[in-house]
Amino acid sequence: MLSALTNAFKIPDLKKRLLITAALFIVYRIGCFIPTPGIDGAALAEFFTRMAQSQGGTLFGIINMFSGGAMERLTIFALGIMPYISSSIIMQLLTAVIPYFEKLSKEGKAGYEVINQYTRYGTVVLSLIQSFFIALWLENPARFDGLRIVMFPGWGFRILTMLTLTTGTIFIMWLGEQIQERGIGNGISLVITAGIISRIPAAFGQLYILMSPGRPSLRQIQPATMLIMAFFLVAVVFSVIMITQGYRKIPVQYARRIVGRKIYGGQSTFIPLKVDTSGVIAIIFAQSLLLFPATIASFIPNAAFQGWAAGLTRGHWVYSFIYALLIIFFCYFYNAIVFNPIDISENMRKYGGFIPGIRPGKPTAEYLYFVMNRITLAGAIFIAIIAIFPDFIMAWLKVPYLVASFFGGTGILIIVGVMLDTIRQIESHLVMHHYEGFIKGARIKGRRV
Length: 449
Fold this sequence. Notes:
449 residues; Preprotein translocase SecY subunit
């Protein structure tokens, strides 16, 4: 690996891309510490600390994770890239159900640019809406256990907060596009990953306090527990890599055609059907939907409603059960949107392709649908287990959620997936210039299941 890193800096173009990516990351992290005007940052951080200890997570906790801790300080990047992700998911859903967007998606680069522009407009609208409600939330001391967060409440503060947070989100979106164009890797994904990784030092700090190496009387975690945690961490990362890279090969044979004196076709290939098609989207959907009642309950002073919502907070068995079911549902829901076996079968028949032993047309579509449902079930169950695993670690080993969150859930899936994709892109540059990559053979191959 050290040799591969050295080789990466021997290629001028790759070296330039890596340095640009690092510089843009520095700009992003600096922005995560510039406070929004009119906020008492210390009081807000104290409130988030209490909330994390009592509930383990709310919708604001999700935003805080994706923004790299900027939400708990309410900096200019407090919203992070979440509005852009939400807008992208909405556009992806609209592409599947609205003919106009479906037509744009089939027009190549020109259609993609139009859809991307609509995504940006949606990001601005969502950012303005979210920042307005955050401003209202911050102005009420009753929601912060008496802590005064806003020094000068009113419409001036609300408008300033909306403009500041929306501008911050647009700037992060621009940073991601610059990384995509001039750097290495997927820009938006790398920005999210940088925010999640930035929380690792705080997690290690909490672990150090819990272990208290110099004061055994204050120790809350034993060395044996740390070994168990290390084992689980390696096992989770290994299993996530296996599933993320796993796919099912569907063999496809193309018939030979004779056109004049030339012979076309006659080759064999395969259709790779991923085990985990939805990635983290299913977890984000399920988590947002499930934590919404608990977040709303904090705004509504109704004992009955708050008691009902208490069962849907992290750590409760009802939460874990419904959470797992929602993840499985959204895995199938997302696959139904992005995977169209009828189109695949029609394209295969158009170019003379067929699956050995399966008749072209409708039987091929039914076969693909059957196989995809089978492998999606395995992938959905795995994602559900990974998603609720941090709750298990938190309850069993008695560690804070900030530490337990690195043993599964959205964070670990994003980190592993983005890192694999970035390494794959660096590999392609190294192999193109005849350098040995990070992995022997200079390729990261998917696993067949």
